[in-house]
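User: Continuing from earlier, I have the next pair ready.

Assistant: Great, send them over.

User: Here they are, in order.

Assistant: Folding the first of the pair now:
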Amino acid sequence: MMKKRLTQAEEFDIMKLVLDKFLWLGMGIMAYGFWLMIATAKPIMQGLSITIAGAIVLVLFLIIIVKEYEVVK
C-alpha cells in the first residue's frame, strides 16, 4: 500500500494547526500562574513558578519546530 505524500503547503497547514494548540496551552499555563500571583493569597513564588513553566513549554515547542521543520530553498 502506497503512503500519500503531503505537499509542502499541506504540511505547513498541519503544522500551523498544531502550533496553535501548543500556543494556547503555554499561554493558558502562564495566565493561570499570573492569576495565582494577582488574585489569590498564595505566595508569589508559586504563581511565578507556574508562569515560568508556561514559558518553558513555549520555548520547548519553539525548539521542536525549528529542529523539525526545515525550509529548503
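And the other member of the pair:
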Amino acid sequence: MAPRKSKNQAAGGLLAGVPEDQLTGSQKVALAVLASYGDLAPSVKRILEAELSEDERHRAMVLFQASLTGSGDPNRDPRKAILNSREAATSD
C-alpha cells in the first residue's frame, strides 16, 4: 500500500519541503484552496510568489479564496487580489 500523501504533497508540491506545522497563514489558506480547487495552482502560485509581506500575502490569499464562492468577484483574478491586498496595506 502506498504511503498516504500529506495535504502539502497532494497540492502538487507547491509547498514541498515545508513541514505542515511551519506553514504561514497564507500557505495554510493556499493549501485549503488547492484541496478544493487543484486546478487553481497557477493562481495560488502567483499570489505566493508575489512581492508582498506575509500580512499582504495572507490578505491576498483570503481575498482570492473568498472570491471562489461567489460570482463576479474581481479578486478571482489573482493579480487583482494582490493589488487589493497592497492597497489595503497602505490604507491601514
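Worth noting for the second one:
The chain has a mean pLDDT of 87. Residues 54-67 form the longest helix (14 residues).
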